[in-house]
Amino acid sequence: MTLEVKDLSFDYPDKNILSDISFKVDEGDFLCILGTNGTGKSTLLKLMLGILKIQKGEILIDGISSKKFKEYKDIAYVSQKATGFNQDFPATVYEVVAAGLYSRRGFLKFPRKSDRKKIEKALEMVGMFELKDRLIGRLSGGQQQRVFIAKAIVSSPKMIFLDEPTVGIDVNAVDSICCLLGDLNKQGYTIIMVTHDLSSVIHHSNKILMLSENEPCRMFDTNEFLNQNYSSQYPHHKEGH
Amino acid sequence: MEIFTYGFIQRAFIVGFFISVMTPMIGNIIVLKRLSSVGDALSHASLAGVAIGLCFSYSPVVVAVLFSCLAALGIEYFRRFFPRYSEISTTLVLSLGVGLAAVFSGFVKNAAGFNSFLFGSIVAISPAETLAVTLLSVMVIIISLLLYRELFYIAFDEEGAALSGVKVKTINFVFTLLTAIVVSVSARTVGALVISSLMVIPVACAMIISKSYRSNIIYSVIFAVIFTTAGLVISCFWDIAPGGTIVLIGIAALILLLPFRRK
User: Fold this and answer.
1) Where are the alpha helices (DSSP H) in chain B?
2) Domain that holds residue A32
3) Which residue of A has its CA nearest to B153?
4) Minimal Cα distance from B148: which residue of A?
5) Residue A123 pLDDT > 90, yes or no?
6) What CATH topology corresponds to B2-257?
7) Which of A152-166, A192-206, B87-101, B155-169 has the lowest mean pLDDT?
8) Does B156 contact A89 at a Cβ distance shorter than 8 Å?
9) What is the pLDDT of residues B140-164, one digit of tens each?
10) Residues A239 and A63 sit within 8 Å (Cβ to Cβ)
């Protein structure tokens, strides 16, 4: 699955946030969208997902305009607010991950026996199988984010969008989530991730889109990005990802 | 025990059973979406429907259902103008319902008939109303079960649900209409002023002991059936308002369960 953004611009009533952005994501890419607060990272992600309406330009998913895109089962989204849900919500880890299968099942179609295996496999992939019967609100932030990643991959999507998935999570959990995303990428999932903290994830990405205020956006190959004066900040990056 | 051989008592228990099964099914979503005030607004709108129905000699339950549905649409309409202050729209509809109920209740010849809708009455349920409430309850229960996964997903993560292809606006609209039906058909037995409590209290009790969303629904239905049955039995023997009795039993149970709340 590919994604192509062409001459995309977006204004809020009081601010121009994105201007003539163009880039392409190929199958198997791990793209990090980087930028400081207010540069439009989350806005760009919401435009790609169709949560916000495109004002100018176009987004093509597998060559089809995002406005006509209906293949919900091929994409998954882990939002910035994923761990900001009602912590007293009486849902188990299993029930939350099962909700992720909706895009594959659809309206008024009940789960099949094979769905149980899919849910258990997704939970095993993120290392949360043992906690499947726990209430989601009783888990740590890092564990909750793993559950939301399991919910995203349970429908076997081709592309996963993540909006700041490591915000509010302790440092060790951040590293383990970034490793998990790297592993998923190696298994063939295309990943598009918004972040303002590149240090943990840069080892796993292969493309970086840099958004800046009052400057055109720039797309880098990760190695190229590191070589252009950033290597001192990210010395642990493995060459030749 | 002879009292349970009377037709009107049997009807009250039949209606009470169906109401206590359907009310928490809707109440779960209301509570989890933090929309408890919607139940209040719709119940007051249904009261306006009762008053107008009694004034013009129409079936008060039918007019109450109509008014509750209109009120539900009104909440959605007003919410567009105050998207960040959704409580304004519910308060507007609640005020409109109270205002209309107050004005038209002055023209109701049978004041006792109107009062029976405020706090419920087990002697007032006719065979036709029993049939109507039973059919509507079965409809609400079936639709709630069919939309189980959609309602769960929307209550848990509305944005995620929309991205997964859930028709959020349609489901929310259907759900609001179901809420309006539940509120108005329950008004006769438990009373318009306490129906929103019956939506919330069994769910609150279930949340103390449940270990999943599914068990939360099952426990809340069990609690509601117990509270309603006990409330109707007590109101039969002591001739007191069933709605108030049911709610007081529920509150007492909730207080007893609170020490068992998970930390």
Assistant:
1) 7-32, 36-55, 60-81, 86-105, 111-119, 127-146, 148-156, 158-163, 168-190, 195-209, 213-238, 242-257
2) 3-230
3) A99
4) A108
5) yes
6) ABC transporter involved in vitamin B12 uptake, BtuC (1.10.3470)
7) A192-206
8) yes
9) 999 999 999 999 999 999 888 988 8
10) no
